[in-house]
Amino acid sequence: MNINIEWDQYFEEMATQEFTVVDNFLPTALYEHLQAQFKTYLKQDQLEPAGIGSLTTYQINENIRTDEILWLERNDCTPEVASYFAFIENDLIPQLNRNLFLSIKDFEFMLAYYPPGGFYKRHLDQFKERNNRLLSMVIYMNDNWQKGDGGELEIFHNNSEATTIVEPIGNRLVLFNSATVWHQVLPAQKERKSVTGWLLKMPQGLGFLG
Ligand SMILES: O=C(O)CCC(=O)C(=O)O
Ligand SMILES: [Fe+2]
To answer: What is the mean pLDDT of residues 174-190?
Structure first.
């Protein structure tokens, strides 16, 4: 898989403001493949209500988030998804490590679905008990998103009262620092889909040591 993105400007934004937005992120064929898979899993009712926290504190609380999720498995996926994982591992992670002086070692991705009315209140992505998430990356899958459809991502700036509103339009990537960037998903008026992932400091499963 070939993603020809000129990353310099985005790395610069990561360094200065801790988040960045990249449009037309995935090659069209892969985007369409993920979209088709998403629809199949939804039809098969394979997504489950998402929880909050990790390990001992894991709980489902609909006052905080109302999305449904399905983890993408590395050892049980289509060749297209495997090629996406290869790109993350062999291309994106080494570039991020080099340019942002990180030491990302692993990743995890899930499909996330917000039904109409869905939201996720202000939070940080890094769990207290499992200090393993370095960067969050969300790819939106909403082909015909329009103003009024809701479900925008609101990012709270760290050095001011300002916030940035990111519209969840199809094939847009938002990348941000998991430990420091507070954010929330505003109520969706229509169904809202994303492929959401995290780049991890330690191999999956070892995070509780961190
Ligand atoms: O979908 C988004 O825009 C953000 C989702 C999110 O904050 C999360 O899953 O932790
Ligand atoms: Fe989040």
So the answer is: 97
Q: Residue 3: its pLDDT value, please?
A: 79
| Cβ(206)–Cβ(103) below 8 Å | no
CA distance 124 to 67: 16
Distance 104 CA to ligand 1 centre (A): 20
Quote the percentage of the chain above a pLDDT of 70: 91
Query: Closest ligand 1 atom, CA of 184?
Result: 7
Domains assigned to the chain: 25-51+63-203 (2.60.120.620)
Residue-averaged pLDDT of the chain: 91
Ligand nearest to the CA of 120: 1
Q: Model ipTM?
A: 0.99
Q: Could you give the CA distance from residue 21 to residue 187 in angstroms, rounded to a whole number?
A: 20
Whole-angstrom distance, CA of residue 47 vs CA of residue 110: 10
Atom of ligand 1 nearest to the CA of 168: 3
Best residue for ligand 1 mutational test, from 125, 140, 181 (most atoms within 8 Å of Cβ): 125
Rounded CA gap, 194 and 137, in Å?
10
Instruction: Name the amino acid, one letter, at 117.
Output: G
Indicate the pLDDT class of residue 26, thresholds 50, 70 and 90.
Answer: very high
Report how far ligand 1's centroid is from the alpha carbon of 196 (Å): 7
In 44-174, alpha helices (H): 79-87, 93-100
The 8-class DSSP code of residue 65 comes to B
> H or E segment at 89?
none
